[in-house]
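User: Predict the complex.
Assistant: Input components as received:
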Amino acid sequence: MIRCVPALIAGLVAALSLGACEGNRADEIVVGEFASLTGGTATFGRSSDAGVQLAVEEINAAGGLLGKTLRVVVEDDQSKPEEARTAVLKLLKQDRVVAVLGEVASSRSLAAAPECQRAGVPMISPASTNPKVTQVGDHIFRVCFIDPFQGSTMAKFAMKTLGAKTAAILRDVKNDYSVGLADFFRDEFLREGGKILTDVSYSEGDIDFKAQLTAIRAVRPEVVFVPGYYTEVGLIARQARELGIAVPLLGGDGWDSPRTVEIGGAAVDGCYFSNHYAADDPTEAVQSFIEKYRRKHFEVPDAMAVLGYDAAQVLADAIRRAGTTEGAKLRDAIAATRDFPGISGKITIDEQRNARKSLVVLKIDGGKVKFFQKVEP
Amino acid sequence: MNEFLQQVVNGIAWGSLYALIALGYTMVYGVLRLINFAHGDVYMIGAMVAYYAARALLAPGTASAPAFFALLALSMAACGLLGFLIERLAYRPLRRSPKFTALITAIGVSLLLENGGQLFFGPDPKFFPQLIESREISPGSGIVITNVQLLILGVSLTLMLGLQFLVFRTRVGTALRAVSYSAETASLMGIDVDRMISLTFVLGSMLAGAAGVLVGLSNPKIEPLMGIMPGLKAFVAAVVGGIGNIPGAMAGGLLMGLSEVLVVGYVSSTYRDAIAFVILIVVLLVRPSGLFGTSLEEKV
């Protein structure tokens, strides 16, 4: 047994190096994508991937990029940050991708971004809104707004539109996105003269929130801010209503999944969340995208699908303008993106490599998610 | 005051789930002196069986109490069968090996169920159908108690009493206790030891299955790794209550649930998982045989 081990290792090394030497075909541009196709936030990954695939199909149908076919290698990170890093390392080292698309969740983008930065390969996150993501380095971009804007908008919305003077916060302490968004909401709410009555937390994966909700119920807030992901939000809403908390719950784009309404049912009625796009936006570009998407997936795209599509289109546009897929030049081209007509709005990449864009507030009403108002940055 | 009472209600509801899982742990340990680490994963299978059965057999929206009890029975039966198979295939071949081997095998079975579950059911969370509409039964008191919470506590207590009755008032129970005392002597008395051990696993796994369905009912998110933490906590509950002791497991479970909820409610959710182990350490320091356990002199 012991004697076979060296032979085994030699065999493995040979197999690995063979794989690595293979290289990519000359008539292809290979782009990597990592997404949560399975796990706790599977709809994020599936939607953004569907958006990316739709964009790639269109790009290739229109003749590809620089005379080459665009190919996307997709890796699943199972909704886990540590897997996200592994997935991106595989994309960089084994598939030798020229750019990386992903992730939706900030924790996972943050886990993978340092690898892209080190390798000098540009990474575009479709929907990670935590400011820290693009602060990792000059190769990390995003095509969405960031949480200071989202958090302060929801705080103003709570005070001005809903007339609330007091709020409670229920945040997911294990989630960079949730912690960041909760802080930005709190800061703005206090600055505007409101009161945060209590600020309690849970951990991703919890299923029982009654203890926290009972503490919130005791202080009688006028709104509860729950900047979590849809899996927990649905359960939180149900348990809140069971305990008799009737005030509106507010959230961010982490709520954007068909599952929020599916899990939450009547409990999420009358709740509001901020998002990147509204499906009932009458704009021609949005409606024709929805039509295209629906023909393929038989459902209305959520914002993650729209942003996945936009991220891929922004990358394609930059490759066209750069005329090359060489890392530094491609990076500069992405950084120079100005007024790109995305489905989620005009995309301009600023000096911090974030997109400056408008935001929509959506209301859940009778099991349907409806446009409520639009806020410019 | 209302807030505190509400937290107590929350804690008891949550703890009765731990209690149900802990009962199975304690039962297997009581008879075999084996910690069945796969127990928490059998609980997961219980929830999954009920989920798929509900999807296959019930039209959406036709939730009813009889349907719930039918699913509960089905799930318990499926888990009983699984427990039987686990014992037959994984533990029985090792009956004569050192205890340590069986313990490691138990961890192996647990990993098999967790990863097999991810492969088979997929790692995405699933949302358990609402079989019984959750309804408040204490209006006006300021403290919300729902019918589902009461049901869970009721089922836990019933199963605990049933188990207690079986072990102490029936012939099978006498045989079980004889095997627990000394398997060799029991076999000399004409007791089929293998059958008794199978029965222990079947019963223990049925309890885990019941807990799986009940958690689906009250906290309707289920996934293949859902058994790890509750399994661990229920194990702690069983040890705290005095492992091998049936009312002890129940009390341990309730204590675990209560302390968790109170810590989350009054301190911070970050300590949710830590409190279980703090209690374990304190109890082991003060009463090494657990709250209800009787200390046994180990024969050397």
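The two ends of chain B are 53 Å apart (CA to CA).
Let me know if you want any component modeled separately.
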